[in-house]
Design brief:
- With 116 residues, the chain is an all-beta fold.
- It is 0% helix and 53% strand.
- Strands 2, 4, 5, 6, 9, 10 and 11 form a seven-stranded mixed beta sheet that branches. Strands 1-3-8-7 form a four-stranded antiparallel beta sheet, with no helix packed on it.
- It is globular and about 40 Å long.
- The model has no long low-confidence stretch (mean pLDDT 97).
């Protein structure tokens, strides 16, 4: 099983970023993909999840309206798009496979830096 994320991104405030997470080694539609971020000096912050089987999503309220999770079953890839970026969104963004009991596999992380 592997989750391979897209590379580091540098964005200006007010713009958007889309991070990808390509899954392999298992049936992509059998597990939720969760998105978690870690800002510098902070703990892990859960952002929400997507069920790749039907595209159903759940978002943490603080991100509602600014984040969109999608999944492309043809390429076994999940995406997280965050809009209206601000400096506080600077963080490492992770995808993780959710077994309902634990996160058993993680992507390698994608550094997103928001700076003018």
């Amino acid at each position: 099983v592997q989750l391979v994320q897209s590379g580091a991104e540098l964005r200006n405030p007010g713009t958007s970023v889309k991070v990808s997470c390509k899954a392999s080694g298992y049936t992509f539609t059998s597990y939720y993909i969760d998105w978690v971020r870690q800002a510098p000096g902070q703990g892990l912050e859960w952002m929400g999840r997507i069920d790749p089987e039907d595209g159903a999503t759940k978002y943490v309220q603080k991100f509602q309206g600014r984040v969109t999770f999608t999944a492309d079953t043809s390429t076994s890839t999940a995406f997280a798009e965050l809009t209206s970026l601000r400096s506080e969104d600077t963080a490492v963004y992770y995808c993780a496979r959710n077994t309902a009991h634990e996160y058993d596999y993680w992507g390698q992380g994608t550094q997103v830096t928001v700076s003018s």
